[in-house]
Amino acid sequence: MAQDRLTDNENRFYTNKIPNKTTELKLTGRKDGTDSELLNSKIAALSKAGGGIIQIKKGTYYLIDIILQSNIHIKIDKDVMIEPYFDKNAKKAASNIFEVGKEFLVENVAITNTDEDNENQSTWFSVNFPKGDYRMKIITGCNVRNFKFSGFKITDSYTPFSCIALNLPDSKDRNEVAFGGIVKNILLTNSHVGYGVIQIQAGKSILCKNLEGIGGVTMRVETGSGETGKENVLTVDDIVGRNIKVKNGDAAFNVSPHRVDQGRVDVEGITAINSSFAVQIAAGFKDRKETGVDNIGTFDSRSYIGDITVTGGKGAQVKSKDFIYFDCKERTEMETKCQNPDFESTPGRSIGVVRTNATLASGCKEGSDGGCYEVVIGKITKTNPDFLMPENFTYKNMAVNGCDKTPAKRSDDCLENPKKESSKKQWEPKEGKGKKGKKKGNN
């Protein structure tokens, strides 16, 4: 019997209903909030008039809290660089460059490069997140219908938060989640190990396509933490991923339900190069938030993850929780080695292909170890044998036992983790401080 699969036809997810009338908006490039005001004003006026296309031409622009409204397409030239604007006088730090549907319903919108379906990275616009202690997303999407985000390259500096987040709106209404959208043609470099191109906490009928991360977890479908975990109401379903790639990171794809029983995912064309894993499948569990619903989450057993191609090697971002798979000698080496600039991972070598604790084969026991569920795993191709674990699946019971548990001290010449400053200064980008670290290229 043929596998029941979710289809990936783009027309199923997004239809261009935006009026084909273009207005060029000339921004100033000033670091004073002016350009955010100009863009927000143009969006509001054009949306009220029925909608259209706003064209942004060559330049470097500093933007924050851009509120997208219905029937607006923002097209951005390939020679545009966008950086977040940090208002030193703001009482509360902002965390979004673009906000879509957080406070009200938004329909028929797009943020793309000018040549919007061109997969050539030279046609994409650029985003830069400078060094500093802050948390920032390029786009937060909530109560939005029929949308498209595509065609940009992000240079991060290991900051927390995924670049795109789909989550509940301010109303917390589970019926007002992102529905019908495409996220494609995006490259992220210098990603924090725990984040990546996109995280989906709440969204239905979403196509993620041609996403690549250097570092981190490129596509993360992790739900049930925070507000989404307060009710056992499905917020994620019909999530399709195609051509999802990671290099020198943690994994290309991660799925984790926490406390909520969720729907189907269908992801294929997964590539991992010199990363800890290609895929991570987490059992449901009750996180530490006391306000969470009394439930252990799962994903639909019809979910599919396949066409996985992995190349093992050095340069992976390895989390400390995965040190358990190394023998005692190599584990000590990992514990004493300088961490990566995210201060939550250590440069190491590829561990395996699929890490899971959700299946019966992994030892999951319903009710004690967490929410157990099975997903269909398709073809796995290893291009070389350079992995810590020879098996395709890595389970917690494969951990190496008997090692000295005395905390190891890291080298004195490692970069120090910068301490949190006042909330006002915390959001001001600055150069990292600390002693010069070792080169990590061949660790």
From TrEMBL:
Family annotation (InterPro entries): Pectin_lyas_fold, Pectin_lyase_fold/virulence
Signal peptide: none
Disordered: region residues: 407-443
Record field: compositional bias (Basic and acidic residues): 407-434
Chain coiled-coil ranges: none
Protein name: Right handed beta helix domain-containing protein
